[in-house]
């Protein structure tokens, strides 16, 4: 496999015949000021701007950069801009298809270019998390000796997917998902730009809104869909991209869903209530509507975590770990694959046995506290480890439960005003049945079970 080398000749051919390149390539920013979003990385004096030589002192910083973020947020673009701004040779490899042999070939080529022509090389390695430890190890000599400026991209947490020696030698930059305003600005620029669509078509508001939903924060996806829809409209002799044309082009129906309005909350509410009601099919329908509307997958995952405690609780103690794992996976992989994870969690939660005992228990306890029913901590439960505690009677009379055969001591734990309060009322649904038996037994042995 030959590495993808962006030579001056290839760039010149692209400029002479821009129509030969996809719109997403033609609209690739040429300077940091053209980059969409990521303003936290583009502030004056930021490490990224110093890397391209802006500010006093010229180029500075490590010879390795790791870009971590969801797909379509500009990782390849930033690598390309760095190479352009520093007049360096740009080579792109994908960890999906490349191996140690291809990496070594690039490094050898970089050393020859530096020795023979004084030309430095930027090696952009996409999806570095797919490289094994041994493959990542092969990059270390080039990074340490600055034979290349390595810019590696990953959609997965680099603290888990990149080896420590490489991570410690790298500048880690986290890219945020692009907002709708970011994508909207990019689309409007592409419509009018000389290297874009040159004003050949217009984009009505309803079509633009649907295009934003399709994009899901992915700039590449947005430009690809725009280019396809513009081509279809022009083929039909139309200068406006209608919603029908866009739908036909991308084969996705427009979902009537305002993420900032009532429907946002209505559909989210319907998802949670369908899970609570154990209607797995309805839950999947509302999940699909949220996904198609371009809802932030992290918002959906947060709602599922809340549902796991609020509506399932101890009836299935595995529900919360499933929801938390789903949220972590969603944050690492993003759409479109995150849809599978959200479906996995939604089905598990909808079919789990239900109990709101944890919800009602903390609600009742909070209500008492807010009413002022608190009282002093019983003396035998107070901290007895500091000097003078014994003189105050703290911890005196405390019975250590582990010293007793049954592991439970009949002593008062709650303040006097609350010693007879029972907040937890377990159901006998699913796994919570064993908790119901346990709470009956413990209350009896604590001397609190009233006949």
Sum this structure up briefly.
By secondary structure, this protein is an alpha/beta fold.
Question: What is the fold's blueprint, element by element?
Answer:
Elements: E1 4-6, H1 8-16, H2 23-26, H3 47-51, E2 64-68, H4 75-85, E3 89-94, H5 100-117, E4 121-126, H6 133-137, H7 140-144, E5 149-154, H8 158-161, H9 164-168, E6 171-174, H10 180-192, H11 205-215, H12 219-235, H13 243-250, H14 262-276, H15 280-292, H16 297-312, H17 319-333, H18 338-351, H19 357-370, H20 389-392, H21 432-445
Parallel strand pairs: 2-5, 2-6, 3-4, 4-5
Antiparallel strand pairs: 1-3
Helix pairs in contact: 10-12, 11-12, 12-13, 14-15, 14-16, 15-18, 16-17, 16-18, 17-18
What does this structure look like?
The protein has four domains: 4-174, 3-Layer(aba) Sandwich (Rossmann fold), CATH 3.40.50; 180-250, Orthogonal Bundle (Helicase, Ruva Protein, domain 3), CATH 1.10.8; 262-351, Zinc Finger, Delta Prime, domain 3, CATH 1.20.272.10; 368-445, Orthogonal Bundle (post-AAA+ oligomerization domain-like). Helix content is 49%, strand content 7%. The chain is built from 21 helices and six strands. It has helices at 8-16, 23-26, 47-51, 75-85, 100-117, 133-137, 140-144, 158-161, 164-168, 180-192, 205-215, 219-235, 243-250, 262-276, 280-292, 297-312, 319-333, 338-351, 357-370, 389-392, 432-445; strands spanning 4-6, 64-68, 89-94, 121-126, 149-154, 171-174. It has a six-stranded mixed beta sheet, sandwiched between helices. Helix 5 links the parallel strand 3 (89-94) and strand 4 (121-126). The chain is extended, with a radius of gyration of 30 Å.
């Amino acid at each position: 496999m030959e590495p993808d080398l962006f030579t001056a000749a290839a760039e010149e051919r692209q400029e002479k015949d821009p129509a030969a390149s996809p719109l997403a390539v033609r609209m690739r920013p040429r300077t940091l000021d053209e980059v969409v979003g990521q303003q936290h990385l583009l502030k004056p004096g930021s490490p990224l701007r110093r890397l391209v030589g802006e500010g006093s002192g010229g180029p500075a910083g490590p010879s390795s950069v790791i870009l971590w973020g969801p797909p379509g947020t500009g990782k390849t673009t930033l690598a390309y801009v760095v190479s352009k701004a520093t007049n360096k040779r740009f080579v792109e490899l994908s960890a999906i298809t490349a191996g140690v042999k291809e990496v070594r070939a690039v490094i050898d080529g970089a050393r020859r270019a530096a020795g023979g022509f004084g030309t430095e090389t930027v090696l952009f390695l996409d999806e570095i998390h797919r490289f094994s430890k041994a493959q990542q190890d092969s990059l270390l000599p080039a990074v340490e000796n600055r034979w290349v400026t390595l810019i590696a991209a990953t959609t997965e947490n680099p603290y888990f997917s990149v080896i420590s020696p490489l991570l410690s030698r790298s500048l880690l930059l986290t890219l945020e998902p692009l907002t709708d305003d970011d994508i909207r600005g990019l689309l409007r620029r592409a419509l009018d730009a000389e290297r874009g669509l040159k004003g050949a078509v217009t984009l009505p508001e309803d079509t633009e809104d649907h295009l934003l939903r399709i994009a899901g924060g992915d700039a590449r996806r947005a430009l690809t869909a725009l280019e396809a829809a513009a081509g279809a409209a022009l083929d039909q002799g139309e200068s406006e991209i209608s919603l029908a044309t866009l739908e036909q082009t991308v084969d996705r129906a427009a979902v009537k869903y305002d993420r900032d309005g009532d429907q946002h909350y209505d559909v989210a509410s319907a998802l949670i209530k369908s899970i609570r009601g154990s209607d797995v099919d309805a839950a999947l329908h509302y999940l699909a509507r949220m996904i198609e509307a371009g809802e932030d997958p992290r918002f959906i995952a947060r709602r599922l975590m809340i549902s796991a405690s609020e509506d399932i609780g101890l009836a299935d103690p595995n529900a919360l770990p499933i929801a938390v794992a789903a949220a972590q996976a969603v944050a690492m992989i993003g759409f479109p694959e995150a849809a599978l994870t959200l479906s996995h969690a939604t089905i598990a939660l909808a079919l789990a046995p239900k109990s709101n005992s944890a919800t009602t228990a903390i609600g009742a306890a909070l209500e008492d506290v807010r009413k002022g029913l608190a009282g002093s901590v019983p003396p035998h439960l107070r901290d007895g480890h500091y000097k003078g505690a014994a003189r105050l009677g703290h911890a005196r009379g405390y019975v250590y439960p582990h010293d007793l055969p049954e592991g439970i001591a009949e002593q008062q734990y709650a303040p006097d005003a609350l010693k007879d309060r029972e907040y937890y009322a377990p159901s006998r649904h699913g796994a919570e049945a064993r908790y119901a038996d346990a709470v009956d037994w413990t209350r009896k042995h604590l001397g609190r079970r009233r006949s």
